[in-house]
User: What shape does this take?
Amino acid sequence: MVKPMSIIKKSMAGLFGLMTMITTSNAEQASKIIHVGGDGSHLAIIDTARYEGFVGNWDENDRLRKHLIAQAKKESIIAWGSGFETDWVIAVRAGMSKQQGHREFQSVISTSSGNLHLVNYDSLTMAAQFHDYRLPDQETKSYGFRVSPGRYKLRIVQLVNPDTNWWETLGKDDPAFLIEYEPAQESDLPLQTIPWASF
Assistant: This one.
């Protein structure tokens, strides 16, 4: 004889499994599309409350790259090179998928405010040059996305090969980059390099 409690447990387990599949599926499909204009030769995601942008004479002695690495160690920024100076369409979504691209990397960012922002090379260098320049600036104000305050592992996928005529294959709102995020584990650590950078 099957006990009623056993039936309830099996039903609940099945329901939980179904809900997990739906949640995962929705996380993989629901994307925010962000059009990043300006000099997109290098891109970054910053925690607007914690990233310290000022460097001073940033183009001397590799100071900007060293500064970005120091800020990455503090988990206030994830920066990378795009391989091509142009505007970019970027999809941002919660959850990790198996979608592949031309190249990818993972790193970690922490946010005390829950406000994460994409910024371009123009904004990074302006903040580096002027002590009172604040990010997000007017240009990048619309490039933000909200998460709950916390620590996140991010997966950045460049979906196109920047050394090809990739723009011929994409529509106006088709992303060239995919950014996925999930809560970080204690073992997840920030990269101490700037992937694909050319400066």
Q: What stands out?
A: The chain is about 25% helix and 30% strand.
